[in-house]
Each structure stands twice: as structure tokens, then as C-alpha cells.
Amino acid sequence: DVKRNGRGSYQFFSEAMNEGARERVGMEAILRQAIRNENLELQYQPRVRLSSGHVTSLEALVRLRHGGEQISPTRFIRIAEESGLISLVGHWVIESVCRQLRAWSGTGLRNLRVSINVSPMQARREDFSATLLAATRRHGICPSQIELEITESTLVEPKQRITANLSKLREAGFTVALDDFGTGYSSLSYLNRLPIDTLKIDRTFVTDSGSLEGGAVVAAIVALGKALGKGIVAEGVETQEQLDWLRTIGCDEVQGFLFAPPLEVRDLEGVLRAGGLLPRDT
Ligand code: C2E
Ligand code: MG
Ligand code: MG
Ligand code: MG
């Protein structure tokens, strides 16, 4: 019986693997086609300063259009990284963001800031800083209008090339945020030496901040970041209670469905012209 069970689960496992492999190959083909046909799309999620309610910047989040469907980056970014397609995606994102910033500035929305998510593979490339600088120059926008979001795992081991690239970019005026902070493995002693301006507290901590312990963890992260002179952004703020706590402990900025989901450009302009965002009724 045990044996049959064992074989059954082996078979299941291998079928699941085939299924996984098929899906990956399928997704890679879809992604390739989407890049070729420019079926990628950016949505922008506002980031709000707690003290003023002003929108301080927008996070660019990529989506893939396939048929009538919109595919989330959680389903294709990993595949893009593993297949090497991420450099094409990354390049497209940089170009689109610069073009959009330029277009906004032409309609009177000047000095907006956008955050771009950057994969480790992208950040590691020798030509990464040159590519970014060239794009900003070509589109006539300021490096200070762009923040680069990198995840902790990008920086865990001493990765000299990435650190050097980021340092160079900061000298040129770009800012750098550490995304999903708290979920990686970066040692706290290393944190003050990283070339970063901002910590983005991962959504999981914000979600758990309602409990006594969870609230204490978020407060400790805010205190640590502030002690190191970093700006603090809380990701994934969904409730008024979370917002109240973040305000109490002195978090600088928030992002989340309580204010706005990632939005298409046409839905953003009203928000941007109004200047601020109040929490949506929940
Ligand atoms: P991330 O950079 O941490 O982005 C935040 C994610 O949380 C986004 O998911 C956003 O839609 C979602 N989110 C925002 N507010 C809330 C909230 O209040 N509640 C909940 N439940 N979720 C919220 P999305 O757009 O699916 O992106 C997922 C991840 O994909 C991103 O995580 C980022 O790591 C990656 N990604 C997105 N765009 C790009 C890109 O252009 N390049 C690269 N390399 N990665 C990207
Ligand atoms: Mg991000
Ligand atoms: Mg994040
Ligand atoms: Mg994330």
C-alpha cells in the first residue's frame, strides 16, 4: 500500500513538473511575443506622503497583455529572469517611464517622480547606468525623477558590480529604494553601508501590524531606518487601522489599496492634478 502510494505521488510529482515546464515554455513564448508586439503595459501606483497627503511619486508596475487577458508580473518576471528576457523587459520599462515622464511634463505635470523595479540581472549589467543615463538624456528628464527599486536579495552577498552601479547612479541624481524590506537576508550591520535612500517595508509586515507583536516589528523597522537616515515607505496599506499605526510610529510615506491600486495612465491624471489622495472609504 505504502509502495503504491509512494509511486502514485512520484507520478503525480513528475506530472506536476511536466505541467510546470509546459506552463513555463508557454509563458516564455507569450512573453517573447508580447515584447515583439509591444503588448506590455505599465500601471502606476501612487505613493503618498503621510504628513501632507501629497502624491510624492508613482511606482511603475509592468503588465502583459495576452488576448483579452492581463497577466500579472508575479507570473512572468521570474520566467523573464531565467530566460534572459528580463533585459528586454527592463529596457522597455525604462524607455516607457522616461517617455511618460516627458509626456506628463508637456501637459504641465512637471517634476513627477517614478519608481522603477529593477531585477538583479539588470542591475548587474556593466551598461546599466549608461543605459539609464542615456534614456533620461534622450527624453529630457532629470535623473532625480527616477527611483530604482531593488530587492534585498539583490544585495545580500557582497555584489560589487551592483553596488558600484547603484553608487554611480546615485551620484548622477537617481535615488535607490530597498524593496520588500525585511523579507530578504541582508544583515543589519550591512544596511548602513548600502547605497540606498529609502526602505520599503514589505506588505507582509504591514498586514500583520494589527497585532501587538506585528505592530512592534513595524515600529522597530521604522526606527531603524530613521536612525540610518533613510526614508521609510510602507507597502500594501489596506486599512485605516494600519494607516493610523503607521502615522503613530512616524512612517514617512505609504502605498496601498487604501489610497489607490496601480492605475492606468488615463485614470491617473485626475489624481495627479488634484495633487493629493485621501484614503478611500473602506
Ligand atoms: P513590488 O515591487 O513589491 O510591488 C508591489 C506589489 O504589491 C504590486 O504587485 C502591487 O500591485 C501590489 N500592491 C500594491 N498595493 C497593494 C495592497 O494594498 N494590497 C495588496 N495585496 N497588494 C498591493 P504587482 O503589480 O503584481 O507586482 C508584483 C511584483 O512584480 C512587484 O512587487 C515587483 O517585484 C515585480 N515587478 C513589477 N513590475 C516590474 C518591472 O517592471 N520590472 C521588474 N523587474 N519587476 C517588476
Ligand atoms: Mg517595487
Ligand atoms: Mg515591494
Ligand atoms: Mg514584492
UniProtKB/TrEMBL annotation:
It comes from the Bacteria. Residues 24-276 form the EAL domain. This is EAL domain-containing protein.
